[in-house]
Design goal:
This protein is mostly helical and 172 residues long. Helix content is 52%, strand content 12%. It contains 7 helices and 6 strands. It is flat, with a radius of gyration of 29 Å.
Length: 172
């Protein structure tokens, strides 16, 4: 069990995800954390606290993306207030619920990278999944992802034409 100050720091870090803020809350010098990192048990506890801090951030990102946040309405530079049932302004500001599409995108990319990734990373194969065999002198390793995608589409088209009886180049 880590000493009291270490436990206080780790608990604060798990909540804030910030070393400077955690040190202030635990009332220890920020540099102490780096000294404690020499202890493998403390380093493991710090990594676990970092995971907990990440979980808090992920939960907040999900809340903002899915549930949204209430944002006050400002009209002509002034806070718009709610109106009661008889037409009087209340002490409560008028709000609109805003959602974060960007956070939603990041959450989807994190949870389903195979479906929502930014770019394709894969392998082009030959017939039946066999390795793609290039003719002598052809080096495909320097092609960009776009060029490889184009090459794959052309290969599919050529294979489809062959299946319909079209002759391959060099055949007659």
């Amino acid at each position: 069990m880590p000493p009291l100050k270490q436990r206080a720091f780790l608990a604060a870090y798990a909540q804030t995800g910030n070393i400077t803020r955690a040190a202030a809350l635990a009332k220890v010098a920020r540099s102490r954390h780096y000294e404690w990192m020499d202890d493998p048990d403390y380093a493991a506890a710090f990594a676990a606290a970092g995971e907990e801090a990440s979980d808090h951030l992920e939960a907040e990102a999900r809340r903002r993306a899915v549930e949204g946040i209430e944002e006050p309405v400002v009209y002509q530079g002034e806070l718009a207030m709610k109106i009661d049932s008889i037409g009087r302004r209340t002490a409560h500001p008028l709000t609109i619920r805003r959602y974060s599409d960007v956070l939603l995108i990041f959450l989807l990319k994190g949870m389903r990278p195979d479906k929502f990734r930014d770019n394709w990373r894969g392998e082009i194969t030959g017939p039946g999944g066999a390795p793609l065999v290039a003719r002598a002198g052809l080096d495909l390793s320097n092609l960009t992802d776009d060029e490889l995608t184009t090459l794959r589409e052309l290969a599919k088209k050529a294979t489809a034409q062959r299946g319909r009886g079209a002759a391959a180049p060099g055949e007659a």
